[in-house]
Amino acid sequence: xxxxxxxxxxxxxxxxxxxxxxxxxxxxxxxxxxxxxxxxxxxxxxxxxxxxxxxxxxxxxxxxxxxxxxxxxxxxxxxxxxxxxxxxxxxxxxxxxxxxxxxxxxxxxx
Amino acid sequence: xxxxxxxxxxxxxxxxxxxxxxxxxxxxxxxxxxxxxxxxxxxxxxxxxxxxxxxxxxxxxxxxxxxxxxxxxxxxxxxxxxxxxxxxxxxxxxxxxxxxxxxxxxxxxxxxxxxxxxxxxxxxxxxxxxxxxxxxxxxxxxxxxxxxxxxxxxxxxxxxxxxxxxxxxxxxxxxxxxxxxxxxxxxxxxxxxxxxxxxxxxxxxxxxxxxxxxxxxxxxxxxxxxxxxxxxxxxxxxxxxxxxxxxxxxxxxxxxxxxxxxxxxxxxxxxxxxxxxxxxxxxxxxxxxxxxxxxxxxxxxxxxxxxxxxxxxxxxxxxxxxxxxxxxxxxxxxxxxxxxxxxxxxxxxxxxxxxxxxxxxxxxxxxxxxxxxxxxxxxxxxxxxxxxxxxxxxxxxxxxxxxxxxxxxxxxxxxxxxxxxxxxxxxxxxxxxxxxxxxxxxxxxxxxxxxxxxxxxxxxxxxxxxxxxxxxxxxxxxxxxxxxxxxxxxxxxxxxxxxxxxxxxxxxxxxxxxxxxxxxxxxxxxxxxxxxxxxxxxxxxxxxxxxxxxxxxxxxxxxxxxxxxxxxxxxxxxxxxxxxxxxxxxxxxxxxxxxxxxxxxxxxxxxxxxxxxxxxxxxxxxxxxxxxxxxxxxxxxxxxxxxxxxxxxxxxxxxxxxxxxxxxxxxxxxxxxxxxxxxxxxxxxxxxxxxxxxxxxxxxxxxxxxxxxxxxxxxxxxxxxxxxxxxxxxxxxxxxxxxxxxxxxxxxxxxxxxxxxxxxxxxxxxxxxxxxxxxxxxxxxxxxxxxxxxxxxxxxxxxxxxxxxxxxxxxxxxxxxxxxxxxxxxxxxxxxxxxxxxxxxxxxxxxxxxxxxxxxxxxxxxxxxxxxxxxxxxxxxxxxxx
Lengths: 110, 882
Description:
The complex is a heterodimer of chains A (about 110) and B (about 900). Chain A is an alpha+beta fold and about 110 residues long. Chain A has helices at about 1-20, 30-40, 45-60, 85-110, and strands at about 25, 65-70, 75-80. With about 900 residues, chain B is α+β, with helices and mostly antiparallel strands. In chain B, the strands form three sheets. In chain B, strands 1, 2, 3, 4, 5, 6, 7, 8, 9, 10 and 11 form an eleven-stranded mixed β-sheet that branches. In chain B, strands 14, 15, 16, 17, 18, 19, 20 and 21 form an eight-stranded mixed β-sheet that branches. In chain B, strands 13-22-12-23 form a four-stranded antiparallel β-sheet. In chain B, helix 12 packs parallel to helix 23 (about 750-785). Helix content of chain B is about 55%, strand content about 15%. Classes of the chains: A alpha+beta (about 110), B alpha+beta (about 900).
């Protein structure tokens, strides 16, 4: 029931996470915050899917993690984009653009 | 890729560190969220609960984060294994019974497979064994069937065929090897020079035979086995080129064969090898079929093509040599198939039987697991409620099953390791390649595979059942959902019916063999074998050139042995019962057709006159042989009942003459007047009908070999040494091989039947025992499960007897279905073992009836204790118990 929804969102979430990390390493909480801010509160990332996504991306080698000090000086896990991740980001961006463009075309005709 | 691997390895080996990090990461997130919430003006409590809410289930997130590490399966398996081991050790009774049950099944399978593998499946241990074929002669007439080949025919085959890459000849032989001052009888063979090359075998020291060494008159050379080299010659490296004494001749040792070389054709040990050049010319003629031929097919030539060409050659040889080759055809058969044809039915039968035992074991363990699954229902429901998926629970249960199967397999392997030597001790001499039997890689893989399959087989049903738990029903107190249990009951009942049926088939099979064996042992031998020792004499013409000398030696030996303490009588014959004999064609004086043209060749024996009396063979008509015969006196013969019936059906055989050409002495008779008729005896096998036989007095037909038969007061075998000493004191060249009692010879002749009987009997007994346990278990469980119902019945006035009848009736109903199914199965399957039976048909009603009623008794026994327990149910306790 819920699962289909997650599946649908999964690809998108990966893209958003990768894009967010393009501007520099940061931790999970910050990633969620930024996505929410930049999308002007349209996109809310459930933490329930964020952390599994981060671990999955790391397992795929697109992002890497290391422990660092947070802005208020606490121990936090920072994620950064790897070279493979950068490639993946541009590929996924391209796919996304093509996909939304196509959907847009169809929407215009009606 | 490397990154992934690193992460996975890290996840696997630094699990707790990864867990801490995950905790830390989640904690950081929550704290950050709480701070933010407080900043927005919430109280700390509100902030915390809001953060928790927005995060979702903390544990679920962690679980999903763990999932993506991709080592989950491994982790889970490890977890399941530990958990399974813990659960199994908590119920040692259950675990022990399950493991022992499985060990019996898997052990029996391992043991039998080790035999099947070595005998039937492993290729022969020679180069390109699939190319090896045996080439044999077949007489096209019925009656005698000789498969041996003559040297002269072999030479023609070798010259004319286009289908064989090579063709070799071999013949079993026996050598008297001089070891110090003693002589030792050693088994060996005479072969063509190319024999070892054909098999693809190289001596480990020295060389194989050279082609020139095949021709008579050259230097006498021999190869010896590795075993003989070790045992007699102390692995002397300088043996090559030295001479050994075989009989009264010297042979130069030219090579030593590799230790792994085993000669598989009937003859398991052959320690001395010579070429056939040492054989007398008389043995090399076209009519003298003394050899076996083995060939290697040319690459790409099928056995069928070889058969076609050899058939053509046989026809041509028949035309060229009508006197010797009439009705002779040639058959080309795969060496491996020919070697195993006698035993393959037996072995497949036993393999089927152990598969049945394993099925029964599986059914039992599946039943145990099903019963246990019920008591674990709540455990599973709790796990499911805590988020375990159905797959996960099934995986857990399957892991436990595999764990059980693994333990059963390990114990079974021990059982097999202990059982295989027993099995070999029991195995008949016709079991080829016996020395290749043992636990090797193939057998171990088989055991592993069987264990896994077994685990999957008995574990699957319970696992699938529990994988779909009805949460609400199960979590309710006392949630023994009656419908679910009914369904499970049906499955358990089906398993019990199945195992009863399978066990019944096994027992019917064993019963038929027992029945055959009893009949076999009741066969009238026609003679009295008790306390008779048989010892071989070799009266080689080199040492005893004339018949007179041989007769004198035999008389001396008899005289000496007769004077030994405890000896009653001593007689001599060309062969003892159950030792085979000489078969020769014959003619009858005054009948059309010359000698040697009868299709049936009777057994021909030369005996001392006291032979019949000594063995207790009755003289039916006429007179016995007289003690002395003058030189040149007219030949006399005594025939057996079958001979008289077959060749003199409506006339008096006494006074008729048979013509036999079996004596080498010029002054020995060729024509024998029948003076008596004696009773038939079983000559080679208990299940073989007696054939026609002719006896001649030794004084008229002094052959060069024979058996002294010594009847003693008691235990004939104990006088074997004294007998050997007496013979050797007369002639130190005698080795006196094959000393054994007639009872032992008879016993050995039924070794194959005993082997089948004991093994199938043991397997059937295991099957029966397991079935007894299985029925008992299911009925006990049934009673325990229905305590409440029984309590209600008792409360409503049911008597103890009613309850007993109810439970026993339910058990017997199951048994009855099982018996009916089993009988039907047995009717279909026992036909396969028809050729192994003696005196009973495969559908012997008596055997079927006894086995079926035995199962009734067993089922009654198995139900009785649970039924009594049910009858003792106290309604007050029963109704309160749930």
